[in-house]
Amino acid sequence: MIVLAGDxxxxxxxxxxxxxxxxxxxxxxxxxYLSRQYANLEMMVAEFLACRxxxxxxxxxxxxxxxxxxxxxxxxxxxxxxxVGMRRCxxxxxxxxxxxxxxxxWAIPGLEAADLxxxxxxxxxxxxxxxxxxxxxxLGEALLIWDGARYRARPSEGGHTDFGPRNEREIRLLxxxxxxxxxxxxxxxxxGMAIPDLYRFVRQSGVTAHPAVAADLARAADPTPVIVDAxxxxxxxCPACRDALAIFASVLGAEAGNLALKVLATGGVYLAGGLPxxxxxxxxxxxxxxxxxxxxRFSDLVGRIPVHVVLNPKAGLxxxxxxxxxxxxxxxxxxxxx
Length: 338
Fold this sequence. Notes:
- By secondary structure, the chain is α/β, with parallel strands linked by helices.
- The chain folds into 2 domains: 2-106 and 314-329, Nucleotidyltransferase, domain 5; 116-311, Hexokinase, domain 1, CATH 3.40.367.20.
- The chain is built from 13 helices and 14 strands.
- The strands form 3 sheets. A 6-stranded mixed β-sheet has the order 9-14-13-10-11-12, with helices on both faces. Strands 3-2-1-4-8 form a 5-stranded mixed β-sheet, with helices on both faces. A 3-stranded antiparallel β-sheet has the order 5-6-7.
């Protein structure tokens, strides 16, 4: 029994072939592709399978976008993915398309200590709900619910809820964003696509930038990596870039706390995606923890919830592989209970 698993994102896509005999830690084949270099996912999958001797019996994909009736429109790509097209492309008898954050959530119970870094102290409650927040190209959210025997992942599109400012500067940011877009969501502040807007906002507010950074941004096809690198430079970080990332980290803390409160995530909060790993020093600072726990009368409750950054960059792929093999194995892919 062979599973083709995929983590389909707006920036990159990870694909792997995995068997029940070898398990998720020893895939038969694995590759990473730049998503925008392909007109659609079918072309990418066909290229991946063309040089492999294995053919999948099942396909399971985590896709960065909402999934309805086996069909997904990738939020930050002009791709539409459906189970019919995947069956035709791969010849697989079974196809499952899920939200990418749901795939990451499936991976959480099986992650090891080396895959995580705790950024808010606390002790997880056994069987408590778990919240997952992942700022990547966009902002994904999901949750895990204990069913009495194991954790089960559930998708969410909470990243597209209305951005709620908490102070005068964030009110100005909301007004500025509403002047740029019809709807100002948390994704407009807490995602890779949001960082250039945050940079422009702080520059228009009078914060200076290093001339070399401004020159690099003028040449860059994608300004986000330039801003992040300049903000996180150990020697003389760019003030405007650092300020933009400070807003990002604070609002991320606030939204992680919002989700924790909404689902009562006493089992913990996990920050996935590439950006939390890249800005880990900012998430270890007091501003993030204060933003996470400042919830009025419920500040003490939220403040006791542990928050971890997921360090494993392949969590979405691991979750898709684990869930793809789970039913065939007849038991949960992991017996971890967080």
